[in-house]
Write a structure and sequence with these properties.
Layout (H helix, E strand, L loop, with lengths): L7 E9 L11 H17 L6 E3 L1 H7 L10 E9 L4 E4 L2
Parallel strand pairs: 2-4
Antiparallel strand pairs: 1-3, 3-4
Length: 90
Protein backbone atom coordinates (compact mmCIF):
# COMPACT_ATOMS: atom_id res chain seq x y z
CA UNK A 1 0.00 0.00 0.00
CA UNK A 2 0.94 3.66 -0.21
CA UNK A 3 3.25 5.03 2.44
CA UNK A 4 3.36 8.69 3.38
CA UNK A 5 6.96 9.28 2.30
CA UNK A 6 6.44 8.24 -1.34
CA UNK A 7 5.26 10.80 -3.88
CA UNK A 8 2.20 9.70 -5.78
CA UNK A 9 -0.65 10.93 -7.93
CA UNK A 10 -4.24 9.85 -7.40
CA UNK A 11 -7.05 9.74 -9.95
CA UNK A 12 -10.62 8.47 -10.00
CA UNK A 13 -11.79 6.82 -13.21
CA UNK A 14 -14.83 4.91 -14.39
CA UNK A 15 -14.29 1.85 -16.56
CA UNK A 16 -17.02 0.25 -18.62
CA UNK A 17 -17.03 -3.54 -18.50
CA UNK A 18 -19.56 -3.93 -21.33
CA UNK A 19 -16.98 -5.47 -23.71
CA UNK A 20 -16.54 -8.35 -21.24
CA UNK A 21 -20.18 -9.33 -21.89
CA UNK A 22 -19.18 -10.25 -25.44
CA UNK A 23 -16.88 -13.01 -24.20
CA UNK A 24 -18.14 -16.44 -23.23
CA UNK A 25 -20.15 -16.66 -20.02
CA UNK A 26 -17.46 -18.72 -18.31
CA UNK A 27 -14.73 -16.13 -18.98
CA UNK A 28 -16.53 -12.86 -18.22
CA UNK A 29 -14.90 -12.14 -14.86
CA UNK A 30 -11.45 -13.01 -16.20
CA UNK A 31 -12.02 -10.75 -19.21
CA UNK A 32 -13.21 -7.93 -16.94
CA UNK A 33 -9.97 -8.06 -14.95
CA UNK A 34 -7.98 -7.90 -18.20
CA UNK A 35 -10.07 -4.92 -19.38
CA UNK A 36 -9.36 -3.10 -16.12
CA UNK A 37 -5.62 -3.74 -16.34
CA UNK A 38 -5.49 -2.64 -19.98
CA UNK A 39 -7.48 0.54 -19.27
CA UNK A 40 -5.31 1.46 -16.29
CA UNK A 41 -2.12 0.78 -18.25
CA UNK A 42 -3.34 2.98 -21.10
CA UNK A 43 -4.51 5.74 -18.74
CA UNK A 44 -1.33 5.86 -16.66
CA UNK A 45 1.08 4.98 -19.51
CA UNK A 46 2.56 2.14 -17.50
CA UNK A 47 3.21 -1.51 -18.21
CA UNK A 48 0.50 -4.07 -17.30
CA UNK A 49 3.09 -5.96 -15.23
CA UNK A 50 3.59 -2.94 -12.97
CA UNK A 51 -0.09 -2.72 -11.97
CA UNK A 52 -1.12 -3.97 -8.51
CA UNK A 53 -4.85 -4.59 -7.97
CA UNK A 54 -6.33 -4.61 -4.50
CA UNK A 55 -8.16 -7.76 -3.46
CA UNK A 56 -11.39 -5.76 -2.92
CA UNK A 57 -11.50 -4.92 -6.65
CA UNK A 58 -11.29 -8.60 -7.49
CA UNK A 59 -14.01 -9.44 -4.95
CA UNK A 60 -16.24 -6.68 -6.39
CA UNK A 61 -15.95 -8.16 -9.89
CA UNK A 62 -16.56 -11.73 -8.66
CA UNK A 63 -19.32 -10.79 -6.16
CA UNK A 64 -22.15 -12.36 -8.22
CA UNK A 65 -20.03 -15.09 -9.74
CA UNK A 66 -18.05 -15.58 -12.88
CA UNK A 67 -20.93 -15.06 -15.32
CA UNK A 68 -22.74 -12.04 -13.82
CA UNK A 69 -20.27 -9.18 -13.67
CA UNK A 70 -21.08 -5.49 -13.12
CA UNK A 71 -21.38 -3.29 -16.21
CA UNK A 72 -19.04 -0.58 -14.91
CA UNK A 73 -16.68 0.05 -12.04
CA UNK A 74 -15.28 3.19 -10.40
CA UNK A 75 -11.65 2.89 -9.38
CA UNK A 76 -9.04 4.96 -7.58
CA UNK A 77 -5.67 4.80 -9.30
CA UNK A 78 -2.52 5.69 -7.42
CA UNK A 79 0.64 6.00 -9.49
CA UNK A 80 3.78 5.83 -7.39
CA UNK A 81 7.09 7.45 -8.18
CA UNK A 82 8.86 4.12 -8.73
CA UNK A 83 6.55 3.26 -11.66
CA UNK A 84 4.10 0.92 -9.97
CA UNK A 85 0.39 1.62 -10.12
CA UNK A 86 -2.14 0.62 -7.47
CA UNK A 87 -5.82 0.07 -8.27
CA UNK A 88 -8.27 0.24 -5.37
CA UNK A 89 -11.95 0.94 -4.82
CA UNK A 90 -12.65 4.57 -3.83
Amino acid sequence: MVENNELSTEELINISLRPARASSRRRRADTAIEIIKDAVAKYTKSEPGMIWMDNQVNEFIWKHGREHIPTKVSLKIIKLEDGTTEVILP
